[in-house]
Amino acid sequence: MIDTHCHLEQKAYDADRDEVVSRCKRELTAVVTCAAKPSDYELTFELVKKNPGFVFAVAGIHPEYVEQFSDAEVEQAMKVIENSKDSLVGVGETGLDYTFVKTAAGRKRQRELFAEFVRLANKLNLPVVVHIRNGEDKDEADAFKDAIEILERESAERVQLHMFGGRKLLERALGNGWYVSANAIILRSKSYGKVVRDTPLERLMLETDAPWLHPSGDAEQRNDLTGVAAVAERVAEIKNIAVEEVDAKTTGNAIAFFRLKL
Ligand SMILES: [Zn+2]
């Protein structure tokens, strides 16, 4: 099993990060950790170096954070990503998050930087890891529609729609050849469950988004990467197939999608 989206650099792992990774090595094939802001890059690259063939990384700037960084800082972050290309298997997470960013200017900046990160991924021949979340005003502003339009305009081909909840646009995304990854949200959300139901196993990957989203639903409890097993079980239930099949297929998908050198 491969956890294709987690955040190993988070403070929640400061006390026992190496132990967590060792435990994961016993239970998982590989993990892809996601550095979501420039201050996370160094620790993330170190983890890759320390755990060759097991910890892989993507780096970008999470849409929720983009307003915190000046143009010069974003440019610098992109330079670091470009220079660290060999330590990376993707660019991200990037995308649109209208949940907390409600101003027109903030959302416009998200769209501009998202397009820039997609262009960077294309330039480096790396996949792009995409985070999309709507605000409550979704009748007026649709982050899913905006994000998919940007990806199409920029001719993005290798796309992971992380924790994808945009049911209405799923067919279009799958038609573009993109992948969807599911996490423990599907243990509780019918709508996210339906995305999994309607995504062919050939296009599905598993993730945890750890340290968040513990399978128990307890927001206080730290999740770890082995929590991906609970997601696999739920996918098997939703699709009414054996968990072994979910494991084999999604692991193969992740290796092929990120071109992992195990
Ligand atoms: Zn994430």
How would you portray this structure in words?
- The two termini are 13 Å apart.
- The protein contains 9 helices and 8 strands.
- With 262 residues, it is α/β, with parallel strands linked by helices.
- The longest helix is centred in the middle third of the chain and has 21 residues, at 104-124.
- The chain has helices spanning 17-27, 41-50, 71-83, 104-124, 143-153, 170-175, 190-198, 228-239, 243-258; strands at 2-6, 30-35, 55-59, 90-97, 128-133, 159-162, 179-182, 204-206.
- The protein has an 8-stranded parallel β-sheet.
- The protein is 42% helix and 16% strand.
- The model has no long low-confidence stretch (mean pLDDT 96).
- The protein binds zinc ion.
- Zinc ion binds at residues 5, 7, 34, 93, 209.
Category by helix and strand content: alpha/beta
Instruction: Tell me the radius of gyration.
Output: 17 Å
Whole-Å distance between the termini? 13 Å
Question: In which order are the strands of the major sheet placed?
Answer: 1-2-3-4-5-6-7-8
Write down the overall geometry.
globular
SSE pattern:
EHEHEHEHEHEHEHEHH
Overall mean pLDDT: 96
Number of strands: 8
Residues in helix, %: 40-55%
List low-confidence stretches: none
Question: Which ligands, by name, code or SMILES, are bound?
Answer: zinc ion
- Structure annotation, total helices: 9
